[in-house]
Amino acid sequence: MNNNNKMGSDPIPQQQQEIEIEGGGGQLSPSSSGYAGGIGSSSNSNPSSEIESSEIQHGENNSTSNGVVYDSASWVPGKRHDDEVSSTLQAIISFVENGGDCVNFVRAGKHQLLVILTKSVNRCFEKNPKFDMTPLLGGTDVVFSSLIHSFSWNPAAFLHAYTCLPLAYPTRQAAGAILQDVADSGVLFAILMCKHKVVSLVGAQKASLHPDDMLLLANFVLSSESFRTSESFSPICLPRYNPMAFLYAYVHFLDVETYLMLLTTSSDAFFHLKDCRIRIEMVLLKSNVLSEVQMSLLEGGLYVEDLPIDPSPRSGYLSPHLGHHRPGTESPSRCRDANPGIGGPAGLWHFIYRSINLDQYVSSEFSSPINSSHQQKRLYRAYQKLYASMHDKGTGPHKTQFRRDENYVLLCWITQDFELYAAFDPLADKALAIKTCNRVCQWVRDVENDIFLLGASPFSW
Amino acid sequence: MGLSSTTTSSESVRLCVFDLRRGQHEGQELDKILFFFPADCPFSTQLSVIGLSEGLITFTRIFSPEAACEVIEAERHSHVFYQAEPDIWMVMIVEKNKEAEAMWRIDALQKVLSEVHSLFVMFHGSVRALLEKDPGGGLVRVHLHSFIMDYLSDFFVGKKLHLPSFRDCLKERGTIQMLTVSREVAIGVQSLVKVVESSCAGSTACNSLVLFQDLLVSTTLTPDDTVNLFTYALSRLTPRALSSVTNTWSYLRKGNTASQVATDSIIGNAESALNASRDTSPSRQRHRYHVPRPLQQEKWSKGKDGFLCTDIWGSQNDDLAPATPTVWLKQTGERAYLCVYQKKYLTIILLIPVTSIINGEQGISIVKQQLLENASPKILKVEEKLTRGWGGDNAYHVAGYRYLLFDSDRSISRASPPGKVTTLTKDSLLALNKLREEVDLEKSRTKQDDPSREKDLELCIRVKNNAWVIARVTRGKELYTVLEKANETLLYASDAVEQFSTRNGSADHWLSWWVGSQSNFSNECAHAIDSSTERHTDLCYYVSWLALSKGTVMVLFLWTKRIIVISEA
C-alpha cells in the first residue's frame, strides 16, 4: 500500500480515489470494505479454495444489508478470477438480478457463497459504467487481506466494539490528559494504540469515533509496513464517521507496538500534528506510560484461572435470570479451586464481556485447553454464531442463550448494560456455569477502571 | 374453469421437476422439463428457472460434489433444491412476503418436495423408470402432472397455495404419529396383526399397518414404507379423511366447496395449458396412457363389507368391479395390493404381494373373505379397547408446554395438538422457527463432516418476549419446546424440559414401534454398549423401557446417547 504521503505533501488524486473506494465500500459497515469475510488468507492463489470456506455464519446471512459478513467465502473485487468459476458466478448473479431480485447467498452442503455489492461502488459504476476499478484497488491487497483475516480472529469485527489494553487507571488518565490537550488545539481525534488495543482515545467536542472505524484504522496502520518506518500523513475515509468525506491521519509509531494517530480535517496540518506528537511523546516518556504499556503487553489481561472465588463484598449479587438460587445447593464460594491447565472454575475456558454503554469489550486471554490457533479459531467461530443467533434480525435480540454441543457449553447473556459470551467445557454443570458467569460479570465490574477507557467518552450517542 | 384463477398463485410459488440428462443440445432445453407449476407459465420463464437451477447445480458441484445446491436465498425469493433421484431435480421457488406470513424453513420446504416424490414413487415407481419405459417423456409428464397437482390441491386455501410456514414449526413432515397404548392393548394388537397377516394364503409374507383415528398403532413395514402409507392414509383413508372435512397437509385449509371448485379450476386450467402448449405431448397422450390419480380427492368410500373401495385404478377389463390399487414397497422392491379395512375409527391396511395372488381380483376377494372370517372378533375387541382408552384430540397435550418430539431414525414424531399451538404468540413461533433453522444447519454440517456422527446439541434461548425456546438433539431424537409462561431462570426452564423429556421420551411412548422392530433393538443395545465407554458417562438423563412378550427389559439411556444399564426382568 503506497498511499502514505510522507512529509505532508498533498495527496495526489489517484490516491484519494483509492481510499474513497475503500472507505466508501465500507459505508455500510467496515467489513464491506473487505467485500467479504475471511478465510484467513486472501492471498491464496487458488480461487476455488476461497469459495470453499467451510465455516459459515448462517445466522448472519440476514445481516448482509448490514454488510457484516463473517468468515464466509470471500470474493475480492479487483482480484482476477479468470476462470470458469468467476464467470459462472457472475452469470448467476446477473441472471437473478435481471429477474428483479438479488442473490444473498447460495448453500450447497456445508459450503456457502455470499454475494454483496456495496452501494457506493454501485454509485461509482452508475456515474461511469466504464469505470475500471482495478488500478484503484491495486496495492490494497495487503490491507484487504489483513482485514479479511481479522474476521477470523478479532472479536471487534462482529461485536462492533473496541478493546483496551489493561492499564492502571492513573496511567490511562495521564495518557488521556495529554491527548485531550492536543484535541483542544484542533485535532479531531487523538488515539494512542498498542497493536489492536486502545491505550487512550480522545475526540474533539461532539465528534465520535465508531468502533468499526477504529477497526479499519488499526487494520490500515498495522497492515502497512511503511507506517512503522517513519511518520506518515495520509488521507483516509472513516465510513461510519462520514462515508463521503476524507480525514487526514498523522501516524507515528512510538515504539514497535505502540502508535499514535492524530486525525484532522485539514490537509495542511502535518506540521502542527508533528508538533503535537512531539509534545505527546515527551509527556508519555516522562510519565512512564510507554513502559507500562510494554509491561501490560507482556502480562496480558484477564485470565480465567484468576477468576476470584469471592469477587467482591457484594458476592450475594444474583442476576435477574441467569442466576437461580436453588435451595440446598452450596454457597458460591465453595466452588472447585482454579485448576491451571484446564481453564477456570466450573470448566470456564474463555469469555468476552461487552459493555454496551462504553462500546468496549474485554476478552479473557486464551489459556489451556484453547491453546492452538486452530482451537482459537474454532472458538471464535462459535462466538460468531452465538452472536448472530442472539442478534437475529427478525426475532432478536434474545436475552439469554445456553448452548451445549460436543465442543463447548456456550452461555450468552444480554442485558441493557452488557453482553457476556462465555465458553465452558462441554461437560460443565449448568448451574455452576451460570454461577460462574455471574462471577465473571462481577469481576469485570470490579476491575473496570483498569480494563476499560472510562469517562470523557467521545461517544455522543 | 376460471381462467384467471392461476395468476395469483403463480406469482408466489413455482415448482418444477427436471432431468439433467435430457435436452443436452442447444434448442432442446425444453426437453429437460418434466413438470412445471404453474403450467401456464411462459416457456421462456420455465426455461430461465431451469437454466438458473442447472447452472447453480453444475457450479456448486465443482466444490461440493457430494451435496450440490440446496438453496439460493435471494432478496425476494428462496429457491429450494431437492435431488429426488440421480439427475432428477425438484426445485421450488417461493416468494418471501412478511405481510402474508410467507416465512419458511428451508428444511420444511425440502420435506414437501421429498414427500411428494416418495408418494409418487410408491404409486408409480421412480421417475427414471418411467423415463426408461417411455424415453419420449410423455408418460412421466402425464403422471407427474396429475400426481403433483392432486398433491398440491391439499395446500390450496381458496386460490392461494399455503405452504408450511413458521406456524408449522411444531410439526415434522414425513413422520408418523403413534398412539400410546398400554402393554395389554399392545399385546392384543400384536395378536390381531398376526391373524390379519395370516389371511394371505400360503407362505408369502403380508404386511400391515393398523391405525386408530389418525394415529399409528402398529406396523410391520420398514420406516420408509410406513411413513409413505401413513401419510397417504391420513390424507385419503382414515375416517377423518373420508369425511373430508379436514385436511392433513396444512392446518389452514378447511375443505369447503368453494376451495374445491377453485382447486379444480386451477388443476383443470393447468391441464388445458399443458395440453395446449406442449407439442410433444398432445392431449391424445392423456388418453393413450391410463393414469391413476391416487391423490384425487374424495375418491375413496367405505363399502358394505367394511373394506374401502375406489375407482381410481379403473376397473377390470371384463368385470365392472373396481381394480384393487397397488403400491411399490421400498423394502421388497415389489408391488403389493393395498387392501383397507375400517371398523369405526380403526383402520387396517393390508399389503399383499402381487406375486402371491395368482388369480387377480378373485384371489384378493378370497383374502378379504378370510380376513373377515378369522379376524372379526379380534378386530372388534381391539377396536373396543382402543376406543375406551382414547383420550381425544388433546390426549397428548402437556399443560404449559408446546412441543415437538421426534425421532429421525424411526421417523416418529409427537407434538402438541394444533389447537394448542395456535395459542402461542407469533414472536415465539418465529423464534422457534429460527431455532429450528439453526439446528437444521448444525445437523447437516455434522453429517457432512462425518456421516457416522450424530449431532448432540442442547440450545435454550430466552427470547425478547420472555418465552423460552429450547431444542435438544441427541442420538437422532429431537425435542423442541416453547415455554411461554415460564417467567423464570434458565435453570428452571431447562429443568422443566428435563422432566418433560424424561417423562415423554420414555418408552411407553415409543413402545408400539419397538414391539414391531425387536430385532433393531438388540442391534441398538450392542451399539450403545460399545460406545458406553466414551467419556460422557457421568450424565444420565434419559430413561427408557421396553416391553417384550417375554417380560420387561429395562433400559437406561444416557442423554448423550449411551446405554449404561440393561437389565432383564
TrEMBL record, chain A:
Organism per entry: Coptis chinensis
Its biological purpose: Plays an important role in membrane trafficking through the secretory apparatus.
Compositionally biased tracts (Low complexity): 41-51
Name the UniProt record assigns to this protein: Vacuolar fusion protein MON1 homolog
Region (Disordered): 1-69
Domain FUZ/MON1/HPS1 second Longin intervals: 186-279
Family (UniProt): Belongs to the MON1/SAND family.
GO terms for biological process, alphabetical: protein targeting to vacuole; vesicle-mediated transport
InterPro entries: FUZ/MON1/HPS1_longin_2 (IPR043971), FUZ/MON1/HPS1_longin_3 (IPR043970), Mon1 (IPR004353)
Pfam families: Fuz_longin_2, Fuz_longin_3
Domain FUZ/MON1/HPS1 third Longin: 347-447
Automatic annotation (TrEMBL), chain B:
Native organism taxonomy: Eukaryota, Viridiplantae, Streptophyta, Embryophyta, Tracheophyta
UniProt cross-references to PANTHER family, sorted A to Z: VACUOLAR FUSION PROTEIN CCZ1 HOMOLOG-RELATED
GO cellular component: Mon1-Ccz1 complex
UniProt name for this protein: CCZ1/INTU/HSP4 first Longin domain-containing protein
Origin: domain of life: Eukaryota
Native source species: Coptis chinensis
Annotated GO biological process: vesicle-mediated transport
Family to which the UniProt record says this protein belongs: Belongs to the CCZ1 family.
CCZ1/INTU/HSP4 first Longin domain ranges (all copies): 16-125
